[in-house]
Amino acid sequence: MQLLQLVFLGPGGERVALLSTYMLPLVRADAGDATLWRNAASTRFWEKDVWTIPIHYEDHWMLATIDIPRSRVAYFDSFAREHPWKGHIQDVMQLTARLLNIAADKGHRIVHAQRAWAVYPTTQHISTTHTTAAYGYWPSSRQFCMGMT
To answer: Which residues does UniProt assign to the signal peptide (predicted)?
Structure first.
């Protein structure tokens, strides 16, 4: 989490809400709106264009980067596996919808495209033989989050 905070510090970083990896287990457990709000409100996500969720899966990490205004979600898998992230799409989309609704109920207006969400992996063609492959994601993730791509 600290590495992600460092990546998103600096110009444009104020546009990114770094949500806890704990948010997806809360969604899976059907936690109430008050619980989701309590765990996300400190990020002031309703003021941010991009929400980032680190996801721990088995023995590695994935990252979901949600571009709210453009209605798109990018997934990064540190092992460049295609299948594991697909199992998280429903949870990420459910969390996104619930946070949008909770924010609206609290009087916060979030502007987002009223269209189908586009979801895509960012690492389908990265070689998994090099552990340094993941490091190439940080600059591209920052560019994605800051609206440069």
So the answer is: none
